[in-house]
Design brief:
Helices cover about 50% and strands about 10% of the residues. It is of the alpha+beta class and about 250 residues long. The protein folds into two domains: about 25-165, no CATH class; about 190-250, no CATH class. The strands form three sheets. A four-stranded antiparallel sheet has the order 3-4-8-7. A two-stranded antiparallel sheet has the order 1-2. It has a two-stranded antiparallel sheet with strand order 5-6. InterPro entries: Plasmid_replication_init_RepA (IPR003446). This is Putative replication-associated protein. Belongs to the IncFII RepA family.
């Protein structure tokens, strides 16, 4: 008698939600890399040892991933990347959400949902292999299902040839850009009465007042990053803006 087909969706595919979230250039790059290589058949899967995350004992491996689990892994890797926060290493989606969007959730005849295919992939393979790290979420009420937070490890990215140094370079660049943007976006807000007072001063006095306003507005570390040349440029910009305002007031 032929074996019953127990797999609900033999070819799962990650389908991002319609209300797509904004993802970084790094995540776009990582998803592209993961799509170009068969992550389920990566050499890393054969060279690493399977370790029980609870006991630390090495678990025996008798064969490679079966095709159904391999298909599930290909879809789930892309889903995890899509919801990945590079700053916290956290996958900002539940196991249930990942299962739903990869077509890996199943329903019984009575209508009960099962996400076993994904949870087993994570618990029995991805975590013991060191690709992810899971942390149980404590809940006050008793439930048969204990949700988990999923964190991606550097080993996860090695599946598609992205080293930790590449991740660090992106983080450094991202941090630097955000700091520069924060500094350039800051503006000096001067009230109308201040403008009227300053309109009666000479250029040297006005520039001195602008300098004092800048020193009071920015932190010491921000002023250091701006530097003397940047500070002079900022004073020039604010002075020119004031000159334009003076002309409007006179009209």
């Amino acid at each position: 008698m032929p074996r019953k087909n127990y797999i609900y969706n033999p070819k799962p595919v990650f389908n991002p939600p319609k209300n797509k979230r904004k993802i970084s250039t790094f995540i776009c790059y990582a998803m592209k890399k993961a799509s170009e290589i068969d992550v389920a058949r990566s050499n890393l899967n054969y060279t690493l040892l399977l370790i029980d995350p609870k006991t630390g004992n090495i678990l025996p491996r008798f064969r490679r991933l079966n095709e159904h689990r391999a298909c599930a892994m290909r879809a789930i890797v892309l889903a995890m990347l899509y919801y990945f926060d590079i700053h916290s290493n956290l996958v900002e989606a539940s196991i249930e959400k990942l299962a739903d969007e990869c077509g890996l959730s199943t329903f019984s005849d009575s209508g009960n949902k099962s996400i076993t295919r994904v949870s087993r992939l994570i618990n029995d393979f991805l975590e013991p292999m060191g690709f992810v790290r899971c942390k149980k979420i404590k809940r006050k009420f008793v439930s048969n299902y204990i949700p988990k937070k999923i964190f991606l490890t550097p080993m996860f990215f090695m599946l598609f040839n992205i080293s930790q140094s590449k991740i660090n370079r992106y983080l450094f660049k991202s941090k630097k850009m955000s700091q520069n943007l924060k500094i350039t976006e800051k503006k000096i807000f001067i009230s109308f009465s201040d403008i009227k007072v300053m309109s009666r001063l000479d250029e040297k006095s006005i520039r001195k007042k602008i300098l004092n306003a800048l020193i009071n507005y920015y932190t010491a570390s921000e002023l250091t990053k701006i530097g003397p040349k940047g500070l002079k440029k900022r004073i020039d910009i604010e002075y020119n803006n004031l000159c334009k305002l003076f002309k409007k007031i006179k009209k």
